[in-house]
Amino acid sequence: MLHGINHNMFGKRDPQQYGTVTLAQIDEQLRALGRELGADVESFQTNSEGEMAGRIHQAYADGVDAVLINAGAWTHYSYGLRDALAILSCPIVELHMSNIHAREPFRHHSVFAEIVRGQICGFGVDSYLLGLRAAVSAVKLA
Fold first, then answer.
1. Is 79 a catalytic site residue?
2. DSSP per residue over the chain, as a string?
């Protein structure tokens, strides 16, 4: 699970869009669901685009089975992260807590869309849980 820029501020930042759940609470819910599904979930958050690219490179080196990513604002403009993600051969699920298509026009476009297995948005914390279920399913089908 790759968490992008400003996600360390979940619970404090714009509660109308993101609710009051914290990043630690999201990660705990992902780990709990992962245990149910027989998947180990490792989470990483950074506010540095370079560190995020490095973690994606590490995922490639480690041969991870799948990647969930909520890159936040980087989703809409980071071709560097898009290129790093394109290196991966595993399923990638893009997710967002808010419905990015019902927000400001710049948020409607994802530079990752062409390389991810799918996108889940608008369901709050459930976007993460749905994303994990989709990733586990994609790995089982592979």
1. no
2. -EE-TTGGGTTTS-HHHH-S--HHHHHHHHHHHHHHHT-----EE-S-HHHHHHHHHHHHHHT-S-EEEE-GGGGGT-HHHHHHHHT--S-EEEEESS-GGGS-GGGG--TTTTTSSEEEESSTHHHHHHHHHHHHHHHHH-
Q: How far apart are CA 61 and CA 44, in angstroms?
A: 16
pLDDT in tens, the chain (142 residues): 999 999 999 878 766 766 679 999 999 999 999 999 999 999 999 999 999 999 999 999 999 999 999 999 999 999 999 999 999 999 999 999 999 888 888 888 999 999 999 999 999 999 999 999 999 999 998 7
Indicate which residue of 60, 96, 101, 109 is catalytic. Answer: 96
Q: Which amino acid is at 29?
A: Q
Catalytic residue among 18, 57, 77, 79: 18
Q: Is 96 a catalytic residue?
A: yes
Residue 4: phi and psi, rounded to 5, are: -90, -160
